[in-house]
Amino acid sequence: MNFDFDVIERSWVYLFQDGMVFTLKLTIFSALGGLFLGTLLALCRLSGIRVLAAVAGAYVNLLRALPLILVIFWFYFLVPYIGAWLTGASRPVSVGGFTSALITFTLFEAAYFCEIMRAGIQSVPSGQVAAGSALGMTYRQVMAKVVLPQAFRNMTPILLTQTIVLFQDTSLVYVLSLTDFLGAATKVAQRDGRLIEMYMFVAIVYFIMSYAASLLVRYLRQRTGIVR
Amino acid sequence: MNYNWNWSVFFDEAPGGVTYLETLLGGLAWTIATAALSWLIALAMGTLVGVARTTNVAWARRLGTAYVELLRNIPLLVQMFLWYFVVPELLPRVLGDAMKQIAPPWGIFLPAVLCLGFYTSSRVAEQVRAGIESLPPGQRMAATALGLVPSQVYRQVLLPSAFRIILPPLTSELLNLIKNTSVAFTIGLFELVGAARSMQEFSFQVFETFALATLFYLLLNLVVVRVMSLIERRMAVPGFIGRSPATEEVTP
């Protein structure tokens, strides 16, 4: 058995400039989209309006019960039809791979971020909501100015941890043959017949990035922990 | 939406002489078999590593931590490729060749089970550790004072109560494991997603196929939740209310 690690030297510009940029873009955009949508879902679940709470709860529980790969395939085939329905076109709209993946991960992560934000909102003492209302604030003001800022702050470490999980999960776009970091590495590996070297390199890169990020989150948790 | 719905497609004949319904049921069976075997590895390795991280032996603690960090910081899909493509090459030649020569479905099944088992074991280990750490330190001291050696302290005092405490988070780990078996589809395992993909490619009825696969996953979820809560009730020690460890505190 002879290893040839030159293959990494020959292809690292492609791996990082095409692959890793795709992975990071997908991670960051779907984390932000998922956080926004997840917060809305959490507000729905806690709104006290029964229909809204039930619909949001059903959505969250459904997506959390399904494997991500199945959800990726669902949206990959569904999004063109939804696009056609939204724009009134008679044929399914063709959607690019990145857009399809972005929509999928945003909607999927929203379910997970929703549960985190729900815990975050519930971690704010209910007396603060009462106090806000007593001061004459509307529901929207109480949420936007009192509850949510604290909920975000309390949940920052867990939100970031979930984002690291998301970063690792984006590798599953492999099943759509997209060129994320793993996809790019697979293409090079198959072209040069160097599966072993490439997959070991990919594992090391993912490990270093995820581990460094998790150490950072740990440090952040210690620094920003609110003493109560 | 101009999509041709055809729900009777499940009774049409699929390539291979069975109906599409049987194709999906076959996938479900592979999902269950893979998850069940992986769960055994996960429980065994997870308990071992979880215990190692709570002992007084410094090198065992460090080794346990390294094990957990290594498995949690590499994407499952990459680990799957490592087990399937890389491990047989790194093993001694005889063993690696033997692994490569296993007949088709089992040659994929084995690396898939090993991958999912070890990956899940790192998560089980975190739960076991959290469960043991949530016990009052007096239990360990009392057991030691009674003259039990460390292995007895763990087997007869700490683990029985720790496992009762962590049953709910273990249930969600089992649910995660069942969902994660779908990743084995990428190396060619014919589990539920693999079966659905094959049916979708041959029958062109995308949404019916995925709808039934979705239903199967939901049913599987429901069964696991029911069975686990049954076990939880059967195992409960009267009058003992365990503090459940904070599951969301666990970092990846």
Topology:
The complex is a heterodimer of chains A (228) and B (252).
Chain A: H1 6-45, H2 50-65, H3 68-87, H4 97-122, H5 126-134, H6 139-169, H7 181-192, H8 195-224
Helix pairs in contact in A: 1-2, 1-4, 1-6, 1-7, 2-4, 3-4, 4-6, 5-6, 6-8, 7-8
Chain B: H1 20-52, H2 58-72, H3 76-90, H4 93-100, H5 104-133, H6 137-145, H7 150-165, H8 167-180, H9 192-203, H10 206-235
Can you describe this structure?
The complex is a heterodimer of chains A (228) and B (252). By secondary structure, chain A is mainly alpha-helical. Chain A has one domain: MetI-like (MetI-like fold). Chain A has helices at residues 6-45, 50-65, 68-87, 97-122, 126-134, 139-169, 181-192, 195-224. In chain A, helix 1 (6-45) runs antiparallel to helix 7 (181-192). Chain A is flat, with a radius of gyration of 21 Å. The mean pLDDT of chain A is 92. By secondary structure, chain B is mainly α. Chain B has a domain at 29-189 and 239-249: Orthogonal Bundle (MetI-like fold), CATH 1.10.3720.10. Chain B contains ten helices and no strands. Chain B has helices at residues 20-52, 58-72, 76-90, 93-100, 104-133, 137-145, 150-165, 167-180, 192-203, 206-235. Chain B is globular, with a radius of gyration of 22 Å. Chain B starts with 19 loop residues before the first helix and ends in a 17-residue tail after the last helix. The model of chain B is unreliable at 242-252 (pLDDT under 50). The A-B interface holds A 1, 62, 65-70, 73-74, 77-78, 81, 84-85, 90-91, 116, 119, 158, 161, 164-165, 168-169, 171-172, 174-175, 182, 195-196, 199-200, 202-203, 206-207, 210-211, 214, 217-218 and B 1-3, 69-70, 72-79, 81-82, 85-86, 89-90, 175, 179-183, 185-186, 192-193, 196-197, 200, 206-207, 210, 213-214, 217-218, 221, 248, 251-252.
